[in-house]
Specification:
single chain, alpha/beta, Aspartate Aminotransferase, domain 1, Aspartate Aminotransferase, domain 2, 3 domains, 5-stranded mixed β-sheet, 16 helices, about 35% helix, globular
Length: about 525
C-alpha cells in the first residue's frame, strides 16, 4: 500500500503526538489520526529520506530513513483464479439468493469482504507445521505445541481448544450463565449475543459515547464505559457473573480498546468480585493500535503489549480464524482451576476430547504458528495501513465512514450515505446488495437486519447502520483495493437512486445469515 506523506513509522527522534489531548480511560494521551510527523531536532532530512550529499562519513551515503511504499510483507507463490461475472449474471444470483449476500455462491463473488474470519491465506511455515502434525486422539504432540503458544502469549493457565470462537463462547456461557443474568460488554457481536440470549440471559452493550458517533475522532472508540460498568455492577449485585470486553470492537467499527481502559475495567471488576474476560479475536491488531496511540507502550513489541492486555483478565475466548491466521479453530483460556474443570466436561459433550476440541492436529499446528505471525511488526504495519489506504480514497470522494478506520475492516456509515432510506428499510443491507450487483464485491451489513430483532420478537433500529468491508488476511493486493474504492465511489455518486429493502421471511434468531429480502422498488435490480 502506498504510504503517503507521514504514513511511515517514526524514527527515534520523531513523534506521533501533536499538542491536542484526548481522554483515554483515566489517562490522557496525545493523538493525531493522520499520524503526521514532526521533524526531529538537528535532523532536518528525517521526514522524507532525502539525499544527504555533501555531508561527510556514512551520513553522506544514507538518509536516516527511506520513505517508501508499504508493501505486502510476503511473496505470492500459489494463486487462485477469480472470475468476473457479468452484471446480468450477478442480478440473477441476487434474485436466486433472495437478496441475501450470505446465500451467494462464492464462485459468483469477485472480491469477498464478507468476513475476515477463516478466509485468510496461510503461510509456508503454517503449511509446513501442518505436515508435521500428530493426529493422535488423546495427548497429541500438536496439542502441547498449541497449548505452549497460547500460554506464552496470554499467560493463562488452562487452554481448551475448540473448533471456532462461538464454541468457546457456548462452553463458557452454558457453564456460567443462568436465566436473568446480565453480561456487559463494550459491544457484543452477533454470535456472542445469541449465545448469551440462548441461556435466557441479557447481553448489555456499554461502549463509550463516542463509539455511537461514526464520524467522531477518538483513538480508542472500542473502550467500555467505565462509569456505566461500575453503575451496573453496583445496581445489579449477584446478576453479573462475568464482564466481557471485545478487542477490537467489531460491531463498533473495528475500534481498539486502550490498556488504561482494560486496567480500569479490571479494577472495577475486582472491587465487585466479578471476573473480567476478553473476547480476543483481534488481539494482535488491538496491540498494534495501543502501540501507535497510547503513551508508554510505543517502544514495546506487539507481543509484550498483548501480554499486558491478557494480564488484565482472568480468561478469554478466541476465534483463531481471525488473529490466529487459520482457516478454522479457537480456544477458551482460563486461570480458575474449578471453572476450567467444569468447562472441560462441557467441552467433551460437543467438541470432543480436551486435547483436540473438534480440531485436527494440523489445525492446532497452524494456529500455533499463526498466533505468532499475527504479532509480527511488518505484518501489522501492512495490515493496518491497508485499511487506512482505502479509507483515504473513500474519504476523498466524500463517502461517510466510521472514524478512525478499523484494523480488520472499513465500515461505511450507510445511515449518512443513504439518509433517504430509514432503518426500517435497511440502508446498509441495501448498500451491500448494490455493491455486489454493480461490482461483484460482497460485504456484510452491521445494522438493523443483524441487530434490530429483539429476543421477544420486537423490532428496534440498530445504534448504527454500517456496511463492513472486512479484509481477509494476506489475500488481496493494492489493485484489488483500488477496484473496491472505484466501486464504492461509483455507488456513492448514484446513492440517490437506491431504494430500501423489506423482509419476506426470517428465522427466529441470527436472522441475517438466512433472511429472505426483496427490494421495495424492483426496477434496476
Amino acid at each position: 500500500m502506498n504510504s503517503g506523506e507521514g504514513r511511515r513509522l517514526p524514527t527515534e527522534d520523531e513523534s506521533w503526538w501533536p499538542n491536542d489531548l484526548v481522554a483515554v480511560g483515566e489517562t490522557r494521551t496525545r493523538f493525531q489520526l493522520n499520524h503526521r510527523l514532526t521533524t526531529g531536532a538537528g535532523n532536518p532530512d528525517s521526514r522524507r529520506g532525502t539525499s544527504l550529499a555533501g555531508r561527510s562519513g556514512a551520513a553522506a551515503i544514507l538518509p536516516s530513513m527511506f520513505t517508501h511504499t508499504i508493501i505486502e510483507p510476503f511473496r505470492i507463490r500459489t494463486v487462485e483464479p477469480i472470475v468476473t461475472r457479468r452484471r446480468e449474471e450477478r442480478s440473477l444470483a441476487l434474485h436466486t439468493s433472495h437478496f441475501n449476500v450470505f446465500a451467494l455462491r462464492a464462485g459468483d463473488v469477485l472480491i469477498d469482504l464478507l468476513t475476515d474470519s477463516g478466509t485468510g491465506a496461510m503461510s509456508a511455515n503454517q503449511w509446513s507445521a501442518m505436515m508435521r502434525s500428530d493426529e493422535s486422539y488423546a495427548g497429541a504432540r500438536s496439542f502441547f505445541t498449541f497449548e505452549e503458544t497460547v500460554r506464552d502469549i496470554t499467560g493463562l493457565t488452562h487452554v481448551l481448544p475448540t473448533h471456532q470462537g462461538r464454541a468457546a463462547e457456548r462452553i463458557l456461557f452454558t457453564t456460567l450463565l443462568k436465566p436473568s443474568d446480565i453480561v456487559p460488554n463494550n459491544t457484543h457481536f452477533d454470535t456472542t449475543r445469541a449465545n448469551i440470549e440462548a441461556r435466557g440471559a441479557e447481553a448489555v452493550d456499554i461502549p463509550i459515547a463516542e463509539a455511537r458517533a461514526p464520524g467522531t475522532l477518538h483513538p480508542f472508540k472500542g473502550n467500555i464505559d467505565l462509569v456505566a460498568l461500575e453503575q451496573l455492577l453496583r445496581e445489579k449485585p449477584g446478576r453479573v457473573p462475568l464482564v466481557l470486553i471485545t478487542v477490537t470492537n467489531n460491531s463498533g467499527g473495528g475500534q481498539p480498546v486502550s490498556l488504561a481502559n482494560l486496567r480500569g475495567a479490571r479494577a472495577i471488576c475486582d472491587r465487585y468480585g466479578v471476573p473480567l474476560f476478553l473476547d480476543a479475536c483481534r488481539f494482535a491488531e488491538n496491540a498494534w493500535f495501543i502501540r501507535l496511540r497510547e503513551p508508554g507502550p510505543e517502544q514495546r513489541t506487539p507481543t509484550a503489549i498483548a501480554r499486558d492486555m491478557f494480564a488484565c483478565v482472568v480468561g478469554c475466548t478466541m476465534s483463531a480464524k481471525k488473529d490466529g491466521m487459520a482457516n478454522i479453530g479457537g480456544f477458551l483460556a482460563l486461570n480458575d482451576d474449578s471453572l476450567a474443570e467444569r468447562c472441560r466436561n462441557n467441552l467433551i459433550l460437543t467438541e470432543g476430547f480436551v486435547t483436540y476440541g473438534g480440531l485436527a492436529g494440523y489445525d492446532l499446528e497452524a494456529i500455533a504458528v499463526g498466533l505468532r505471525e499475527a504479532l509480527q511488526e511488518d505484518y501489522l504495519h501492512y495490515r493496518i495501513r491497508s485499511i487506512e489506504y482505502l479509507a483515504e480514497k473513500l474519504m476523498a470522494g466524500g463517502v461517510p465512514l466510521v472514524q478512525p478506520p478499523g484494523g480488520h475492516a472499513l465500515y461505511i456509515d450507510a445511515r449518512s450515505m443513504l439518509p433517504h432510506i430509514p432503518p426500517s428499510e435497511y440502508p446498509a443491507w441495501t448498500l451491500s446488495c448494490a455493491l455486489y450487483l454493480e461490482a461483484g464485491v460482497r460485504a456484510a451489513e452491521i445494522g438493523s437486519v443483524m441487530f434490530g430483532q429483539q429476543p421477544e420478537g420486537s423490532e428496534r433500529p440498530a445504534a448504527m447502520e454500517l456496511l463492513r468491508l472486512a479484509f481477509p488476511r494476506r489475500v488481496y493486493t493494492q489493485s484489488h483495493v483500488d477496484y473496491i474504492a472505484e466501486a464504492v465511489l461509483y455507488l456513492h455518486a448514484r446513492r440517490g437512486q437506491l431504494r430500501g429493502m423489506r423482509i419476506t421471511d426470517q428465522p427466529a434468531t441470527l436472522r441475517h445469515f438466512s433472511v429472505k429480502m426483496a427490494p421495495l422498488d424492483p426496477a434496476g435490480w
